[in-house]
Amino acid sequence: MPRLSQEELLKKIRKIEIRTRSLSHQIFAGEYHSAFKGRGMAFSEVREYRWGDDVRSMDWNVTARMSAPYVKIFEEERELTVMLMVDISRSGLFGTAARTKRDAIAEIAAVLAFSAIINNDKVGALLFTDKVELFIPPAKGRSHLLHIIREILEFEPAPSAQKTSSHFLRHPSHATEGRGTDISGALRFLTGAIKKRCNVFLLSDLMDTDDEGNPAYEEALKVAVGKHDISVIRVYDRRERSIPDVGIVHIKDSETGKGEWVDTGSRKVRSAYENWMRNSEEASGKLLLRHNVDKVDIATDEDYVLGLKTLFRRR
Question: In the predicted model, what is the mean pLDDT of the chain?
Fold first, then answer.
């Protein structure tokens, strides 16, 4: 993936910020707040009893001291932690519409992050391929948020081991770039790094399957849902679901690097591919349903607003 110049990157980040900040304020703020509740109720203050107040909230010590009935007032303990698990494997560079899957994921992640910031929640990010590439601990603030967006847009797996400051961790890389997808490894890292229960958004095309198309991350997911509240946003390109009839072509897997000649003119070949993709999608959907994980599918050529609103309303 060609790196953007500094000017191009800042322009892209600014464009995403303007659009997603507006959406977060106008559309998602209330729904996000309703969908993701706080940890409970915390004592706020006392005030004089009013007609209709629940007598069970009476503060008898203050009532006795003031010689008048007083009640305790509680407020929702609102602050949450939001973690964005972002798949930056090579398959995310595919896109036949106006944007790639990775561009769509970046913008959706920005909307979620802005919604969290508006509600005074902390936001962190975990970028992964076939290994954890970058972990940004949860924090607040616009500069922190823009740093997350920048990394999602620009980050490229490094060819050698390296670390940033103590605030950000880059996983030691192997000799080659991280191209594949290992959702299990990312989930295991998350459960080890974040001890306190948090809201997790996994943004991925979910292309992490065995040869039969079955998800390869069930065991790790089972552990993660016991510790965190996980929602999945699957981003896909409609062209991935079928192969057009364009004769004999050389097709290369962007994650494994393997390629072979395929006769797309063969109805049998096209049908086999379409069946595999359909079975793979159905298998991942059944897995998430089995573990009570909310999921929404968003195509690269559609507006993600409806998809996010649907996800929030399911909760």
Answer: 81
